[in-house]
Amino acid sequence: MNQKPEDHDNWLLDILLYGSEFTADRVSMVMNELEAPPQSLRGGVFTRYDRFFKNKERFARFMSYHITDYNEHVIDTAVLSALARQRSSNVADSLRAIFCESLSEDENSIWQAILKFGDEEAFWRLTEQEFGFEASKKTWRISLLAW
Q: Fewest CB within 10 angstroms: 49, 107, 135, 136, which?
């Protein structure tokens, strides 16, 4: 994909300034529907969750949280909460749902959804930020014991 030229080299700058830029890639369309600030998180967190946003049910649950201030922590938490099928976006409630589902990682459908549609590193980062849990070997059962 071509980069936009600098303003002083852009012959179409006046059109961009009085109109709005149209993009048709999936990530941009999701961000537009969520009314997320353009370009602020486009290359990072929204792109990371492209598979998550392809499902209408997960997307609807994410939208039900009515997020207005988008940042990486808020989006990671909302994705985790949606995968845990929570009514509100909350790390503690999501962890409770995960641990109540099953103590076996292989049999836990929420954990498997996180691995498939979410971001395992974001899960560990949220666990560390919310509860101070930090371990060199990040295993699911160790986090349960620490929690």
A: 136
DSSP string across 88-102: S--HHHHHHHHHHH-
- pTM for the complete prediction? 0.78
**Rounded Cα gap, residues 59 and 79, in angstroms:** 9
Both tokens of 39, joined, read: 């370009």
Q: Is residue 42 part of a domain?
A: yes
**What tokens appear for 50 in the block?**
């492209």
Residue 124 lies in a domain: yes
Question: Residue 85 class from Cβ within 10 Å (0-12 exposed, 13-18 middle, 19+ buried)?
Answer: middle
Neighbours of 43 (CB within 10 A): 10
Q: Regarding predicted confidence, which is higher, 76 or 69?
A: 76
Q: Is residue 6 part of a domain?
A: no
SS3 91: helix
Domain that holds residue 78: 23-146
- The 10s digit of each residue's pLDDT in 36-60 is 876 656 567 888 999 999 999 999 9
Number of domain units in the chain: 1
